[in-house]
Amino acid sequence: MRFGGLTAVQGVDLTVHTGEIVGLIGPNGAGKTTFFNCLTGLYTPTEGTVAYRGTRLSRKPHLVTQAGIARTFQNIRLFANMTVLENVLVGRHTRTKEGLWSALLRTPAFTRAEHHSTQRALELLDFTGLAPKSDHLARNLPYGEQRKLEIARALASEPGLLLLDEPTAGMNPQETRATQDLVHAIRDHGTAVLVIEHDMRFIFSLCDRVAVLVQGRKLTEGTPRTVQADDRVIAAYLGTTDDTTPGDPTGDTP
Ligand SMILES: Nc1ncnc2c1ncn2[C@@H]1O[C@H](COP(=O)(O)OP(=O)(O)OP(=O)(O)O)[C@@H](O)[C@H]1O
């Protein structure tokens, strides 16, 4: 993926298996979010294709969601003036087949689908611990619960792969621990998880595997223990690789 003269992501190949949590780490500007944006159709890669379960993915975000990939964003993107339940229901739209006319005419098929969606959304609120706040406006939730709601909304599309972009950013240690438990529970329910995060303690205790991006390329991939012990990873974070790190054109260590 190129932006003018800058190659933000190049030749990154990453497999996430069902029942696995994979971490994607790398210094600021390494291309992590760009990689997510290429996967989810927000960016059209200047070269290459994106495939999921052997099928080439559409470049339209809602079709990517329909194909089974859901995501959360670095900056929370909730419908602030809608309730918690309504936010999750919005996440169901790619899983409901009823069209505009059946909605306007409130056909029996539409009513059944609506009932099923509400049931499923309530189950997800239970699962994420937000059920007692289902009728609260999203904007009135504390920060940690807003992040949880984003995850619940993403899960509403019943993804096979969930992409989490910095899910613990701005959280206190208690909220971070709760998020870790939630991600484990999601994995245990059979959803593959790929997570970007700067909190290394969180990533190394959460993930089964970790991939490291540096200047848009995959530097290495392995178990948390292997990656933690890799001198090249430490050098990349400190900006002491042979190449200068992005955002540090002098190559000076911070
Ligand atoms: N829409 C865009 N237009 C131009 N350049 C972009 C765009 N999006 C990302 N970039 C550039 O691509 C590079 C990778 O950015 P990206 O946000 O993917 O990195 P990141 O690893 O997610 O960083 P961070 O950890 O700081 O969020 C950066 O140099 C960034 O400035």
Automatic annotation (TrEMBL):
Source organism: Streptomyces noursei
Gene3D superfamilies reported for this sequence: P-loop containing nucleotide triphosphate hydrolases (3.40.50.300)
- Top-rank taxon, per record: Bacteria
What are its GO biological-process terms?
A: D-alanine transmembrane transport; L-alanine transport; L-isoleucine import across plasma membrane; L-valine import across plasma membrane
Q: Name one GO cellular component term.
A: plasma membrane
Keyword annotations from UniProtKB, A to Z: ATP-binding, Nucleotide-binding, Transport
Name assigned to this protein: Branched-chain amino acid ABC transporter ATP-binding protein
Residue stretches making up the ABC transporter domain: 1-240
PANTHER family, from UniProt? AMINO ACID ABC TRANSPORTER ATP-BINDING PROTEIN, CONSERVED COMPONENT OF ABC TRANSPORTER FOR NATURAL AMINO ACIDS-RELATED
Which InterPro entries does the protein's record reference?
Answer: AAA+_ATPase, ABC_AA/LPS_Transport, ABC_transporter-like_ATP-bd, BCA_ABC_TP_C, P-loop_NTPase
Q: What is a single molecular function from GO for this protein?
A: ATP binding
